[in-house]
Specification:
Strand content: 15-25%
Shape: globular
Oligomer: single chain
Mean pLDDT: 93
Radius of gyration: 24 Å
Strand order of the largest sheet: 22-21-23-14-24
Helix content: 25-40%
């Protein structure tokens, strides 16, 4: 099974004969899910605790790792997982205490205790290539246990958000087994194979070429946070399989060999014609998940000329017709987001609506017809609705419903103003209308793009390329499975990485969005960045001050909301990255073998198979009994 010679045969058999005849495991007991981030580059390496990318969403974070806390953006709940309660701070936020849940065990039978936490933090601080190294070195003075279930952190400076480093939200520091890692020579090169699990599943098998990974439910699943909180997961086996091209996913689910996947809008429509058991998060248009706490868009490398010039960044923004852009990307089904924050129903209420007047009055340092130019366009919502009607879709007339469906507005499509911004910085067009840099050479943009054609990042890259080509710029799109390393090391001009780190999803605190832009985590080109925010290599003293003030107050303090708005306004003024639309999760669920997925009519948890919360969904799934 693990020999590369079997890959083609395995894939063919999965398509034609079904899983049971290939792997010798019952299909009706197996949940098959897609891998969002692509084929595993190092399939035998399960050490996701270093700063290197190890494809954690091939089941590692979803099934075999439990964090201290995990957030559910659909329910708005921060769940106590390995921790038994919320973090405990002293009065001046210089000390934080964690209480661990008793009775949790690693899959090899060793109890999970404070020793694992202390060892993990000290190891991360000791080795620069360990995950969270910079964060812990900056913040932690000392970490120690007071008993087997209590860990105390003494912090170098007051920090009311230190616990955020441990909340799993598609990332976060997760404990690893001390009794395993302390026996290896180098925790960085250690492949952690086979991985010892703190979650409800263990590794059973994997493909050496990186296409699939198979997990089996632990016999002692009840000794995990998943089991204690939600009960027994229903599937005995979970297979993560990277099918690659969207057409492969359609064929696989049409043959009931893929239960959960992400697709393009076009592929989803085609699939529903072939498989009557396929459904989306929503039953009707726009089908998409609208509670995803993620803003997609474009990241500009602010240390690469000419993207270090604010006028250039704004020119690229105003050269985009957002309605046409989203039409190219998702047939109009994605909600436009003008802030560095997703336009979910929650954030529309908390940030978008309160900032509406400021957006309408915001001006750029350039005049049009003798007046300062106001770039915000609230009518973009109505234009998006008209696009949908022209495509034959039924949409409401109520403006509030339209805002929730399509977003509350975006920047004006103003290529004439974009041209003025460029010309005043020495750019010019050639005789064919193509843009030249100030030195007279052709302006060529290379966009580093996500490898999965159904991923919103990939769709952003294609849409941006078309918009900027229409404006007269030569654009080349390069898809790469190494996009993470390329962009984090800064070896790019424009990428389709998120324009800002993701917020919590159900809390107004924006420290998670803004703090990665702080200059303390800045890394020059050639050094590995910490998160998506720093890949832009943009910093600003005003932003530093906002973040520092945030970290000195409780995240429920009303002043925190005001600071969040200040940070969002600064990001708009400088536009180091370009937010475009909220993550339009197009999920396809096959109800042939499994039912009771968390759709819009029953959103008991977040709906994605690639999120670490998947393990909390599995106890709710119901087998149909089909074989």
């Amino acid at each position: 099974m693990k020999k590369s010679a079997c890959i083609i045969v395995l894939a063919l058999l999965l398509f034609i004969t079904g899983l049971s005849q290939v792997a010798g495991i019952p299909r009706e007991e197996t949940l098959i899910v897609d891998v969002l981030s692509g084929r595993a580059g190092s399939p035998g390496n399960f050490n996701v605790f270093t700063s290197a990318w190890r494809n954690p969403d091939r089941g590692i974070q979803q099934l075999i790792l439990e964090p201290l806390w995990i957030v559910d953006p659909t329910t708005g709940e921060v769940i106590n997982a390995l921790a038994s309660e919320e973090p405990i701070y002293n009065k001046d936020f210089t000390q934080m205490t964690i209480k661990l849940r008793k009775g949790c065990y690693w899959s090899d039978g060793v109890e999970i205790t404070a020793d694992d936490i202390v060892y993990g933090i000290e190891t991360a601080m000791q080795y620069t290539a360990m995950g969270s190294h910079d964060t812990f070195k900056l913040n932690v003075k000392k970490v120690y246990k007071t008993d087997n279930y209590t860990v105390v952190f003494e912090l170098k400076e007051p920090n009311a958000r230190f616990h955020a480093n441990f909340i799993d939200r598609w990332g976060g520091w997760r404990p690893f087994p001390k009794h395993v890692f302390e026996k290896v020579d180098d925790p960085i090169t250690f492949d952690f194979n086979p991985p010892i699990s703190s979650g409800p599943y263990v590794l059973k098998d994997y493909d050496q070429a990186g296409y699939w990974t198979l997990y089996e439910k632990r016999e002692d699943w009840e000794r995990t946070p998943t089991g204690m909180l939600y009960g027994e997961p229903k599937p005995k086996y979970v297979l993560f399989y990277y099918y690659g091209e969207t057409s492969n996913k359609v064929i696989a689910q049409a043959n009931h060999n893929l239960d959960m996947t992400d697709l393009t809008i076009e592929a989803f429509r085609a699939l529903t014609q072939r498989n009557p058991y396929t459904r989306a998060y929503r039953i009707e248009y726009p089908w998409i998940v609208n509670v995803d706490p993620c803003i997609t868009g474009l990241t500009l490398n602010n240390e690469v000329y000419p993207y270090n010039i604010k006028d250039v960044r704004w020119a690229l923004t105003l050269a985009i017709d957002i309605v046409d852009y989203i039409g190219i990307a998702f047939d109009g089904a994605a909600p436009m987001g003008v802030l560095h924050l997703p336009p979910t129903p929650y954030y529309l209420k908390v940030y978008y609506e309160p900032m509406e007047e400021w957006l309408k009055n915001f001006t750029l340092d350039i005049e049009v017809n003798g007046q300062p130019f106001k770039p915000y366009d609230p009518s973009a919502t109505l234009r998006a609705a008209q696009y949908a009607r022209e495509r034959g879709y039924t949409v409401p007339n109520d403006i509030n419903e339209l805002k929730e469906m399509f977003g509350p507005g975006w920047w004006k499509y103003a290529p004439d103003v974009a041209e003025q911004l460029l010309i005043r910085n020495g750019f010019k067009r050639d005789k064919n209308g193509k843009w030249l840099l100030p030195d007279g050479t052709p302006w060529k943009i290379t966009i580093i793009n996500h490898p999965s054609p159904s991923h919103p990042s990939n769709r952003n890259g294609l849409a941006a390329a078309q918009q900027w080509r229409n404006f007269g710029i030569d654009v080349n799109v390069v898809t790469s499975e190494s996009i993470q390393d390329i962009t984090f090391f800064g070896n790019y001009e424009v990428s389709t990485n998120w324009p800002a780190p993701e917020p919590w999803g159900g809390h107004p605190d924006l420290d998670r969005v803004l703090s990665p832009f702080h200059s303390r985590v800045y890394k020059p080109i050639g050094e590995y960045a910490v998160q998506n925010g720093p890949t832009s290599r943009w910093t600003n003293p005003k932003l530093d001050k906002i973040v520092e003030n945030m970290e000195k107050i409780d995240w429920n303090d009303p002043r925190n909301l005001e600071l969040g708005m200040e940070g969002l306004k600064l990001l708009i003024e400088e536009m180091p990255t370009i937010p475009t639309f909220g993550y339009p999760g197009v999920v396809a669920w096959d109800e042939y073998y499994w039912t009771n997925y968390p759709g819009a009519e029953n959103p008991y948890t977040q709906p994605y198979h690639h999120w670490p919360n998947l393990k909390y969904m599995l106890p709710y799934l119901e087998p149909t009994g089909r074989k």
